[in-house]
Amino acid sequence: MATADVTIMGAGAFGLSIAWECARRGARVRVCEAARIGAGSSGGIVGALAPHVPEQWNAKKQFQFDSLLMAEGFWAGVGAAGGADPGYLRSGRVQSIADEAALALARGRSLGAAALWHGQALWEVVAAVEDGWLPKTPTGYLIRDTLTARLHPRQAGIALTAAIRARGGRIEEGVAMPDGTAPVIWATGAAGLADLGATLGKTVGGPVKGQAALFACPGVATRPQLFVDGVHIVPHADGTVAVGSTSERDFDGADRVDEKLDPVIEKARAACPALGDAPVIERWAGLRPRARSRAPMLGAWPGRAGHFIANGGFKIGFGMAPKVAQVMADLVLEGRDAIPDGFRVEDSL
Description:
2 domains, alpha/beta, single chain, six-stranded mixed sheet, 31% helix
């Protein structure tokens, strides 16, 4: 068996995306997953790839903006290489505006987007219309952005797996520890944050439970995403609409769905007319890795030569994945450090 140029521990959004980027550049790649592909939050159902608001701009927002702009080409390359559709569509997003204060804030942010996004995407205030999909809004206005995209998380995992294998990469399930030589990139999600904290003797982050629901709702696959009252409503190409999610710091049962999901479902039905009578066909729960800095943790593992960390995707793992893959491949394969301040491992220590 050929020796890998780089071993990636973890087959979630970050791990598989980094593996694909390394393989695309010609590296021999091995991915090791302790459980199964997409076992953690990357096996969820929502898949909202949405930007931060265009104000108080910082390195984190710029990094995510760049990643969202990269996403269409990144996922098209994944699909072409492996022949599996990741479910990507830059569908845009619509948000309700609750009152006059929120309307004034939204108009200010539209000016911010014009200055910060440089015409590569729009964030604008538009008059509301009733068409059976768009939400009702007390002010008569909505926020519309053209940067938000959707991805089907499970299909994306399948597509990345196929693409990596098409480039000669190996993906092995049931392997919790590397048995080869460095470099090794640890992209092991919530469990990985706990392991890193135990090794370093300090808390570097922790899991946040999320619960989401999947509706059967054909005929809306190309409609924009909605964000209403803190709830993401994401139509997928397979005739489903994903709704989520909760953010639970204190919880019982990592994958146990309970009554905390019910208000999310109720808010979605109230906000979106098309979901009023649509049946819920799946309820999902899982743990998302949140670093102390709330930004991804990227870079060298302190005190462990040849080992690197890519963790802390939290709610934006798939949205950040193309850019995370790029900077980690730059670092590990080429020795070029392009990780922005705020994203480094030491920022969460």
